[in-house]
Specification:
Blueprint: E1 4-8, H1 16-27, E2 33-38, H2 45-52, E3 55-60, E4 66-71
Parallel strand pairs: 1-2
Antiparallel strand pairs: 2-4, 3-4
C-alpha cells in the first residue's frame, strides 16, 4: 500500500503553501503520495514539480479550493 500524506495549506498566504509543499516532498520517499488542499490553484508550483519529475493531478474542491495529488517518483 502506498503511503499517502495530507497537507492542509488553506488560509496561508503565498508563498507559504508552495514552501510547505516542497519541504514535505523533500521528506518523502519515492513512490509516496502527497495530497495538498489549497485555497487557490498553485500555478507557480507546477513548473517546480515538472522540473523535479513529479506527476500530479488537480481537482477543484466543493469548498472553492483545490486538491492536488502529487506522486514522488
Amino acid at each position: 500500500m502506498t503511503k499517502v500524506i495530507r497537507l492542509d495549506n488553506r488560509g496561508l498566504k503565498p508563498p507559504q503553501p508552495m514552501i510547505r509543499t516542497l519541504e514535505q516532498l523533500e521528506l518523502m520517499n519515492s513512490g509516496e503520495t502527497l495530497i495538498i488542499h489549497n485555497d487557490r490553484r498553485p500555478m507557480f508550483l507546477y513548473p517546480e514539480l515538472d522540473e523535479l519529475g513529479y506527476s500530479y493531478e488537480t481537482e477543484a474542491h466543493p469548498d472553492g479550493g483545490f486538491l492536488i495529488t502529487i506522486r514522488k517518483p
